[in-house]
Amino acid sequence: MEKVNDLKLNVSLLRRKVPNLTSAARLVGLRPATVSNLCTGKIPIGRAEVRTLVALASLAACSLDDLIIRAEKTEIIETQIKTLDLFAPLAKGGTVGLVARPGMGQLVVLAELLYRFKNEAYKTIFLIPEGEHRGLNDVTKNAEIVTNTIEETYDNIANVGGDQDIIFVADRTHVITGEIQQLQENLQGIGIHSITTFLVDLTGEVVDEDLPYGPLETLWQFDADLVARHRYPAINPLSSTSSVLEGAHLDQEHFAIQQKALKILRRYRELRSLVNVSGIERIPTSELQTYRRGERLEAYLTQPFYIAESYTKKPGQAVGLQDTLKDVKDIMNGAVDSKNVSELEFIGKLQS
């Protein structure tokens, strides 16, 4: 008998069968946010209501056996960007959606990832969105292949073949039309499965929708408060999710450190709101340690990017997952309580 933790939604099937899942979910009385959390694994299958699963199977015109599948081990792509690898790891071969308003740094993150992946022997492809958009130059410059149409993209990926790992970046407009889903289905039809897809929205409309890209393995949500305080990359660890840390993909040490870090950051944000209104003296003595460590943890999660070196005058930093886990554990255990917050801002790993 299958363990409940070994089960997950067949996200690729949902993506193919129900391209506009947001509207479809609402029409049958489902909350899009619930569907999104089931797709990323934030809500385990074992905690899903039966009526929700039946409704999804009906939308996809499939059986429950087709909708609910065994969660095979998924490989993580290490970005060596601390906050991404810790809180919402990238599932190899999956689809990740970026949720941000213009100016929050999503294109900088994409350009940095393309730069890093290109140097790791991935084939990187960027489908140019329609219209004029600021900040695209860095993305275009760091993509190995730039295409203008879905047809051109298909031809280039088909020429690359199924033996090469591919990173593909596209705009949400191609999701709305169903072209991305059709592209993925066509490529699977010729045996190409090793594509990790990044979806971005350059209008900012995704911020106001619960399921803007359809089913996803990974969701990276950018945060206006982090942007305002120049905490880059400004990705909110509390609302970004990934299926990698659930079910069969679970790494116990990673998960334990991640959950403790989330608890500290969540409480730190609550306390910080109090400090902003009434001053630090209003924080109960018993909470001061949590506030101080949350402050240092948030500072540590900032990181200098290679593509921004000419602007920041700081050398780019790559931090492996194991180093990130060790450093975060040390911060939470008080190893850097004596350091100033400024000493932890925009660094790589902690120095021994």
From TrEMBL:
InterPro entries: ATPase_alpha/beta_chains (IPR050053), ATPase_F1/V1_b/a_C (IPR024034), P-loop_NTPase (IPR027417). It comes from the Bacteria. Keywords: ATP synthesis, ATP-binding, CF(1), Ion transport, Membrane, Nucleotide-binding, Translocase, Transport. Gene3D superfamilies: Bovine Mitochondrial F1-atpase, Atp Synthase Beta Chain, Chain D, domain 3, P-loop containing nucleotide triphosphate hydrolases. It is found in: Membrane. The keyword Nucleotide-binding applies. Belongs to the ATPase alpha/beta chains family. This is F-type H+-transporting ATPase subunit beta. The lineage of its organism: Bacteria, Bacillati, Bacillota, Bacilli, Bacillales.
